[in-house]
Amino acid sequence: MKFLKNILISLFISVIVFMLVEIPFRVYDYEFKYKNLKSWFYQGKIPISFEEIMVYHFKTGRVVRDPDLIWRHKYSEEHPLDSIGIRTCKRKEISCLKDCDVYRIIIFGGSHPFGLYLKYEDTYAYRLEELFRNKQREWDKKIQVINASIPGYSTLQALNLLKYHMIHYNPDLVIIDAGNNDGLQLCRSWPWRDSEIVGTMSTLQCRVLNILEKSSFFWYFREFLYKIKHSIIVNKNKVNDIELTRVSKEENKNNLEEIKKLAYSNNFKVIFLSQVTMDGVGQLRRGFGAVVEPYLDIYGKLKNRSDIKDYFLDSIHGSAKGHREIAKIIYDYLKADIMQSELKK
Fold first, then answer.
1. Which residues, 6 or more positions from 321, have their beta carbon under 8 angstroms from its beta carbon?
2. How far is the C-alpha of 93 from the C-alpha of 146, rounded, in Å?
3. Do 189 and 236 meet the contact criterion of CB atoms below 8 Å apart?
């Protein structure tokens, strides 16, 4: 009995000590570091880096660790999500069941195809389905478009999301709009390549981390340990003048080829979209990623537009106008190629 009492007292003291340590770090985070983050979000601009926004999401429980996906979104105040983090038009689950008269298109990618800062009705996934719906009399099936893009996702995460989760949704066509996140440079807060993370954590380890990573103190303490024990990581971004990114160019191409093999073995079609970015002077640039056929060159379709600045909210994320134009480009491509052979009445 005395032993149990000592354990309970020790646990109580540990909790009190942790709270005393945690409180100042949490106050700093939410009163200074992240105070204006929500208003920045609604203005369509977040002036902090990828790794900083990811740390914020872990601290607030918006994202949780996943053995295969590295992380998945648990909830979002701004966007309705289903239980596996897929964006929905309304707060409801997307059923994996598919009626025989439905042709299902699933889009994979990062925050741009996800439609960050936009209403769901302004995303090109919704616009694409709307274009087919308006021309429904031309097709012998109902076209359904699912937006399985997730902010921050790389091609490896898109591959694993398709392989371990969305393959059960029986897609007829998969559109891959991923690659720019592959090119994000490693840093002290995010020092490992995606391939070094996937498969290294068990479900139990993920659950433990999901508890610890809600602590502000935990993140600052871990960063302190990185500075001491992994100082080499500071210089890891360049090795023999080669910048290290979340996914290397070779891995990027291999991930896309794996998706292509998955499509072939599971009897669905796939299209790869080129990545685009906007530089500081408003010029369109080709983004990070290999060219894998079948390839729809969004960059090539947009590069000569005189009003290209109106198509973007920032260097990566498309505006409502940009999404509307991309939806039309994809629709015209599908109508002339895939849909013509498969769904034309």
1. 310, 311
2. 12
3. no
Residue-range domain boundaries for the chain: 88-184+245-342
Residue 18 is predicted with a pLDDT of 66
With CA atoms as reference, report the closest residue to 106 among 182, 180, 163: 163
Question: pLDDT per residue over 252-298, tens digit each?
Answer: 999 999 999 999 999 999 999 999 998 877 789 999 989 999 999 99
Query: Two tokens at 25?
Result: 């770090």
- The DSSP bridge pattern shows strands 70-73 and 63-66 to be antiparallel
* pTM score: 0.86
CATH homologous superfamily of domain 88-184+245-342? SGNH hydrolase (3.40.50.1110)
Written as one letter, the residue type at 16 is: I
Terminal-to-terminal C-alpha distance of the chain: 79
- The amino acid that residue 248 corresponds to is S
What whole-number distance in Å separates Cα of residue 243 and Cα of residue 52? Answer: 20
H/E stretch holding 147 reads strand 142-147
CA–CA gap between residue 11 and residue 17 (Å, rounded): 10
